[in-house]
């Protein structure tokens, strides 16, 4: 199996945004060179125009060369990629300088725009190109590695957040299954199957998205295991008929809310109660919530509630930024946690239909 190709530190210079940046930087450089040559006196506009055209030739040709060779450069070690990219830019500058000299070179009996000889013209072009290329390529290199570190940190953060979810339901599930093995082996076997699906989901990529239908199926399996422990004390009402089942949602984002409702609501009530799972889509925002009864005294485990909720809140923020949030509504007898996130289709929705 071949290793994945390393991404090049040279950005894609073929796109319009990159092209605009190259033109802008080249024009700024041309203006600086013209001002440096003419001083603070009146700016010679014909000279600025000629300088701009010349610098733009070099900049656009170098961008085209890096664009065409970007994939090839990415196959090389980082050091060789940097050196070869640098050499290519200088080579382009030398070729453009030679072509420009052939067009603008002084000819006997004719007016000329150049007052220096061939060697000095090429040396000046290469010297300035070498400095600018070194600065720009260094910027590309630092920016690329900063983006890689940022992406790696975000992925690690998501993985750590999802890892904190696993123990919440694993231990309870294992204890329930252990108590059923001798009493009811068939129900214990079904519970093991449900647990295996939950484990598979919890061990998946932290950034993975699933459809609402798949997330609801995982919650059903979790509730089936908890029902073995709580019996008739646990009642669930699903108010989700209006939700498009193909919308995308971070995997294992609803299950912690349901577990929270059981742990800090149903278990504390001698007669149990009803958990209501509800959802709607309003203005392209998906709202999905879990409501549960609480003891009249409000005897909730604040630490446990806050841990699970902060965990989910951070995951939503990592995925969606300010567009992802978790809202809490609490009364003396009722507790409701609702997450809000952009309503977007799963990439596999059309394929699955």
What does this structure look like?
- The protein has 353 residues and is of the alpha+beta class.
- 60% of the residues lie in helices and 13% in strands.
- It is elongated.
Look at the structure and give the mean pLDDT. Answer: 79
Structural class: alpha+beta
Number of helices: 10
How would you sum up the global shape? elongated
| Helix percent band | 55-70%
Query: What portion of residues belong to β-strands?
Result: 5-15%
The largest β sheet comes out as:
5 strands, mixed
The helix-strand sequence is HHHHHHEHEEHEEHEEH
- Number of E strands: 7
Strand order of the largest sheet: 2-4-5-7-6
Distance from first to last alpha carbon: 33 Å
Low-pLDDT residue spans: 349-353
What does the radius of gyration come to?
Answer: 32 Å
SSE layout and pairing:
Blueprint: H1 16-38, H2 45-74, H3 78-104, H4 118-163, H5 166-180, H6 185-202, E1 209-211, H7 212-230, E2 234-239, E3 248-250, H8 255-264, E4 273-282, E5 285-293, H9 302-320, E6 325-331, E7 334-342, H10 349-352
Parallel strand pairs: 2-4
Antiparallel strand pairs: 1-3, 4-5, 5-7, 6-7
């Amino acid at each position: 199996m071949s290793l994945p190709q390393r991404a090049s530190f040279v950005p894609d210079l073929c796109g319009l945004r990159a092209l605009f940046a190259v033109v802008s930087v080249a024009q700024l450089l041309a203006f600086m060179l013209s001002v440096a040559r003419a001083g603070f006196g009146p700016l010679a506009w014909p000279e600025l125009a000629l300088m701009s055209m010349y610098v733009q030739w070099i900049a656009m040709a170098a961008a085209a060369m890096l664009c065409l060779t970007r994939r090839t450069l990415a196959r090389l070690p980082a050091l060789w990629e940097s050196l070869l990219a640098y050499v290519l830019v200088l080579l382009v500058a030398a070729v453009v300088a030679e072509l420009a000299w052939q067009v603008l070179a002084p000819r006997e009996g004719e007016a000329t725009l150049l007052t220096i000889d061939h060697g000095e013209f090429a040396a000046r072009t290469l010297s300035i190109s070498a400095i600018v290329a070194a600065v720009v390529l260094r910027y590309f290199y630092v920016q690329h590695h900063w983006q890689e570190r940022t992406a790696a940190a975000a992925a690690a953060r998501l993985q750590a957040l999802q890892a904190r979810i696993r123990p919440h339901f694993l231990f309870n599930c294992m204890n329930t299954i252990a108590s059923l093995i001798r009493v009811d082996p068939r129900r214990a076997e079904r519970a093991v199957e449900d647990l295996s699906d939950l484990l598979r989901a919890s061990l998946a990529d932290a950034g993975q998205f699933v459809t609402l239908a798949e997330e609801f199926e995982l919650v059903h399996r979790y509730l089936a295991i908890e029902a073995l422990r709580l019996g008739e004390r646990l009642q669930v009402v699903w108010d989700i008929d209006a939700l498009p089942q193909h919308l995308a949602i971070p995997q294992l984002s609803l299950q912690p809310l349901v577990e929270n409702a059981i742990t800090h609501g149903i278990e504390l009530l001698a007669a149990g109660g009803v958990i209501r799972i509800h959802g709607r889509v309003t203005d392209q925002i998906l709202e999905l919530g879990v409501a549960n009864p609480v003891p009249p005294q409000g005897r909730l485990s604040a630490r446990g509630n806050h841990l699970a909720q902060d965990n989910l809140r951070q995951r939503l923020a990592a995925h969606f930024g300010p567009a992802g949030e978790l809202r809490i509504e609490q009364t003396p007898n009722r507790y409701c946690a609702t997450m809000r996130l952009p309503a977007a289709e799963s990439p596999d929705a059309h394929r699955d239909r």
